User: Which sequence fits this backbone?
């Protein structure tokens, strides 16, 4: 699909989409919960569908009733699992990293695969850690497909937190469900701490007891108060990651009001608000509504090490700022759906915006957005960044624009709803 974005002045109200980070963690918790879970404000993005398909292959049953997602599970593992399980995670990096340790709780032989860019992304941490926990693994040079066979046996271990906070999330779920005595996961150099905060918040909601010792140790207690056969209700948060693009749209041209974002969220991408404040945007917050209005924008400095998914919307914001913006944390971008540092440099360069990658810094000089045809590189956040930059351009054509379905399927329709001039061609 091709999206064509023309210069637009936006004005309107948007409901924040559901957070796939919150949604997928809730799916994991619902699978492990022996009973029924009702998920409100459930997500519909491709990554959310991937998580639901995976828990269905692991024995859970899900259905929708009156827009509420009902998940029934016998817990995991259980006696009714087949000897061999096939799990396909689509293109969801979070799902494969989180669910693989959980899947390893079973003694079934489990084949794990994915699609698109996911099969090219490194998964070495599975080979490094899972064998220590009694799991046999066959892998392809640290990449999918892989085969595992448990059962995972929790023990005190130390992991490199810079490899993947998503894998740590899976370990925390697996340990919490299986430990029979107090067990400790020690972590060195943890990245993306806010996402671990979100993990712990979801797990607490489902009754797990984990002590976080300054992100260096996670002390997991036996699950004494299992909420077996009880109904659990969980509401998925609004998504700061996807909605950051809409907030930036309001900042660069016009005004937008966004509903459904929690300012007290553990999502690290809520720090987009600090970047907007620093560059001079007008911000009004009333109840659960955030209104962003364009103003004269000045360059800013921002550390995105703990929230690397903000790089694309921050790049679109910086392109419209007067002066040179510096964003720290480029080292976190190499193993996303694309190598996002290089991809942002490429597509913004085509649009006339100079981006320099200097060690861990991305240096962006704001200026005029030129007419251009760019590729999403099959990366949802790259497609959205190009679209937002195009609101102040003179015709931006985005190829493979359907990449947005991975996390924010309603993105183009939401832009249109608030006045953006968008045309889509198959």
Assistant:
């Amino acid at each position: 699909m091709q999206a064509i974005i023309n210069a637009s002045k936006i004005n309107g109200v948007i409901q924040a989409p559901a957070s796939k980070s919150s949604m997928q963690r809730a799916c994991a918790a619902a699978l492990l919960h022996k009973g029924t879970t009702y998920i409100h404000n459930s997500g519909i993005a491709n990554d959310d569908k991937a998580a639901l398909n995976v828990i269905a292959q692991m024995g859970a049953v899900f259905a929708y009733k009156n827009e509420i997602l009902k998940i029934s599970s016998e817990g995991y593992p259980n006696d009714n699992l087949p000897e061999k399980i096939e799990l396909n995670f689509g293109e969801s990096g979070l799902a494969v990293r989180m669910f693989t340790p959980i899947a390893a709780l079973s003694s079934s032989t489990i084949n794990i695969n994915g699609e698109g860019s996911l099969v090219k992304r490194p998964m070495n941490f599975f080979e490094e850690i899972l064998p220590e926990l009694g799991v046999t693994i066959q892998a392809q040079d640290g990449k999918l497909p892989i085969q595992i066979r448990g059962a995972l046996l929790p023990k005190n271990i130390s992991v490199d937190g810079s490899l993947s906070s998503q894998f740590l999330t899976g370990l925390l779920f697996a340990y919490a469900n299986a430990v029979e005595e107090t067990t400790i996961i020690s972590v060195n150099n943890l990245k993306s701490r806010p996402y671990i905060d979100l993990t712990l918040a979801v797990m607490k909601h489902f009754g797990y007891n984990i002590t976080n010792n300054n992100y260096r140790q996670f002390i997991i207690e036996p699950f004494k108060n299992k909420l077996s056969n009880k109904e659990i209700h969980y509401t998925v948060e609004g998504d700061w990651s996807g909605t950051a693009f809409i907030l930036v749209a309001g900042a660069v041209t016009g005004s937008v009001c966004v509903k459904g974002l929690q300012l007290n969220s553990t999502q690290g991408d809520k720090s987009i608000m600090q970047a907007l404040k620093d560059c001079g945007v007008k911000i009004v917050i009333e109840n659960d509504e955030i209104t962003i209005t364009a103003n004269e924008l000045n360059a800013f400095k921002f550390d995105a090490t703990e929230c690397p998914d903000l790089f694309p919307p921050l790049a679109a914001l910086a392109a419209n700022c007067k002066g040179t913006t510096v964003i720290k944390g480029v080292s976190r971008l190499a193993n996303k759906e694309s190598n996002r540092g290089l991809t942002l440099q490429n597509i913004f360069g085509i649009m006339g915006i100079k981006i320099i990658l200097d060690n861990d810094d991305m240096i962006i000089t704001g200026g005029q957005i030129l007419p251009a045809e760019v590729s999403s590189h099959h990366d949802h956040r790259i497609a959205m960044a190009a679209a937002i930059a195009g609101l102040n351009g003179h015709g931006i054509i985005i190829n493979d624009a359907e990449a947005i379905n991975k996390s924010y399927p309603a993105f183009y329709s939401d832009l249109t709803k608030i006045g953006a001039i968008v045309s889509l061609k198959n």
The mean pLDDT is 95. The chain has two domains: 2-17+238-425, 20-235. The longest strand covers residues 34-40.
